[in-house]
Amino acid sequence: MKLLFNSILNYVKNPRLKQLKHVTTSQKLSIVFTAIPICILLGLGFGLFIGALESLGLYSQDSHAINKLMEEETPFTIIFTAVIMAPVIEELIFRGPLTLFSTKYFKIAFYLMAILFGYVHIFNFEITSQILLLSPLLVAPQIVIGLVFGYIRVRLGLTYSMLLHACYNGILIIPALLLLE
Question: What region does 98 belong to: left with phi over 0, alpha with psi -120 to 50, or beta?
Fold first, then answer.
């Protein structure tokens, strides 16, 4: 895991349009499944920081869209939406086009897509001036995870970034659903 984390970190420092060659499907799956705990740890780290913001009274998680979704939809609908539909659609939009950029513009596109991916998630909050001021912090987890998804997309392929995204969402959503029942 440490080796993959260092590889991702080095890649994010200097992203380049270079797919891993001569890697088997089994090796690609191994990389994806090793990336899952990296994403979870990154997400939890930022989550603790965001929790501190909430405990300081700077914003309330109560108005987050996931809470409303959990109250209004069936578990099947939530899982289907968050674990299947969202990863496919978001990866097609935010990571799919990455390989279409020329080497000259790739680095800008890589970072821009991660930032856009993060900021789309601001709409999970009830938009207020407070939320907008805190937005860089509130969407930081999605931006960072978006960089990891981008690494997987470029190095392994779009299917693998979709798989990682789906696993990540599933690990976050399914236990929450089980706790609510």
Answer: alpha
- Mean pLDDT for the chain? 93
pLDDT one-digit tens code per residue, 21-54: 999 999 999 999 999 999 999 998 988 888 888 8
Closest CA to 50 of 148, 135, 149: 135
Q: What's the predicted TM-score (pTM) here?
A: 0.94
For CA atoms 51, 54, 60, 62, the dihedral sign is positive
- Answer for the pair 23, 140: CB distance below 8 angstroms, yes or no: no
Note the helical H segments in the chain: 2-13, 25-55, 65-72, 75-79, 86-94, 103-120, 129-138, 140-156, 158-180
Nearest by Cα to 152 from 33, 1, 13: 33
Q: How far apart are the first and last CA of the chain?
A: 33
The CA distance from 92 to 161, in Å, is 10
Burial class of residue 124, CB neighbours in 10 A (0-12, 13-18, 19+): middle
Q: Mean pLDDT per segment of 10 residues, for the chain of length 181 residues?
A: 96 95 96 97 90 84 76 90 96 96 94 98 90 93 97 98 98 86 67
Type of residue at 136: P
How many other CB atoms are found less than 10 A from the CB of residue 26?
A: 8
Q: Whose CA is closest to 114, among 89, 81, 151?
A: 151
